[in-house]
Each structure stands twice: as C-alpha cells, then as structure tokens.
C-alpha cells in the first residue's frame, strides 16, 4: 500500500470539485466533443464488474479526482472515459480545472516536471491515496507520430477538418478503450 503523503487535496477540497454534469456546464470549449466521447465510451460488463469489485474492497477506490482543461484533446477523450468508469464503478468523481488548481497539479507532475492532463487520482473512501494516471494511454503515445504525420503540410482549415474526423474515428476510439484497460490495470495493481 502506498504511504499517505501530506496533500493539498483534503477531503473538503476534494468535495469542492465539480461533478461531470457540473463540469459540462462550466466548460467554454469542446462541449460537443466531450459529449461525443462520453456517449461513445463503452465500459464492458466485465470491466464494469471488475471496477465495482475493486471499489468494494476495504482499501479500494471510492473517489477519483480529475485535473483537466477543456482545450486539451487528451482531456476531451480521457475525462469522458473517466466519467463512464466512475458511473460503472460507483466512484465519486470530482473535476478540477488544472490552471485554477496548480497546487494540486504540482503534486502529480508527469516525470516530476510536466503539468500533463488529464490526471486522475484515486482515493479510498476515507481519502487515502491509492495511485494516479496521467495524460494518455501508452498506445496513444506510441501512435502519436503516425497521427501527426497525417496533418503535416495541410493548411489550417484542412488540418482542423482532418483532426476532427480523426477524433471521431477508430484509432481515437481504440485510445478510449485502452484508457479503460490501463486504469483497470492500475487499480488492480494498487488494490490487489
């Protein structure tokens, strides 16, 4: 079990975060993309049962804190996935805009230096830290070069159109499913 660290995320601070529905009402950009990713994310019955089983453990996940910003494509995809997982597992999800909560972000920097988002931090019911996950699945990192090559040499409007199509396509969908898999694997490793 991970030793509890002193954190700016007290139970009261956690409770002050936004729910998924509150976040959708708060954001200024990409609302339709958040909704699309939410609607297209599938947590299989087996995965939902696995998440619920972990959440039922004494030291299992009961709460998840999410850091993100509405302009970030990884947040648009990943936060929707986390919302679906939280629903499937009965986890309390609280969302914080990163740029308004840099003290939280600084506790969970990628490689100790990058303010990468989304960041998901899991806690037990009594608010003990379990573990965290940052940015995007390894599969997305591995495929990122191929993706950016699709848009090179395209003018702004054409690149935006192609990227919008990409965000509705099979590779993007596979990254959503890989996020589900990685989050389940993380929690299985941390919670047994």
Average of the residue pLDDT scores: 95
Count of DSSP strands? 4
CATH architecture: 3-Layer(aba) Sandwich
Q: State the fourth-level CATH superfamily.
A: Glutaredoxin
Helix-strand pattern: HHHHEHEHEEHHH
User: Could you give a short account of the major beta sheet?
Assistant: 4 strands, mixed
Oligomer: single chain
What is the C-alpha radius of gyration, as a whole number of Å? Answer: 17 Å
Topology:
Blueprint (H helix, E strand, L loop, with lengths): L10 H5 L4 H7 L4 H10 L4 H11 L7 E6 L4 H17 L2 E6 L4 H4 L13 E5 L5 E6 L3 H14 L4 H11 L3 H22 L1
Parallel strand pairs: 1-2
Antiparallel strand pairs: 1-3, 3-4
Helix pairs in contact: 3-5, 4-9, 5-9
Briefly say what this structure is.
The chain has 192 residues and is α+β, with helices and mostly antiparallel strands.
Question: Your description of this structure?
Answer:
53% of the residues lie in helices and 12% in strands. It has a single domain (11-136, 182-191), classed as Glutaredoxin, CATH 3.40.30.10. A four-stranded mixed β-sheet has the order 2-1-3-4, covered by helices on one side. It starts with 10 loop residues before the first helix and ends with a helix. It is of the alpha+beta class and 192 residues long.
């Amino acid at each position: 079990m991970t030793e509890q660290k002193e954190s700016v995320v007290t139970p009261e601070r956690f409770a002050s975060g936004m729910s998924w529905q509150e976040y959708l009402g708060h954001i200024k950009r990409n609302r339709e993309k958040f909704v699309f990713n939410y609607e297209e994310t599938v947590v299989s019955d087996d995965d939902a049962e696995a998440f619920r089983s972990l959440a039922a453990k004494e030291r299992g996940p009961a709460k998840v804190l999410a850091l993100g910003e509405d302009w970030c494509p990884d947040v648009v995809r990943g936060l929707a996935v986390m919302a679906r997982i939280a629903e499937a597992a009965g986890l309390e999800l609280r969302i914080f805009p990163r740029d308004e909560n840099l003290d939280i972000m600084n506790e969970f920097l990628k490689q100790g230096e990058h303010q990468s988002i989304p960041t998901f931090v899991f806690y037990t019911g009594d608010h003990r830290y379990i573990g965290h996950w940052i940015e995007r699945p390894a599969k997305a990192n591995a495929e990122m070069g191929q993706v950016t090559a699709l848009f090179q040499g395209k003018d702004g409007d054409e690149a935006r159109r192609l990227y919008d199509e990409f965000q509705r396509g099979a590779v993007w969908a596979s990254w959503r499913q890989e996020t589900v898999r990685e989050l389940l694997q993380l929690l299985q490793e941390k919670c047994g």
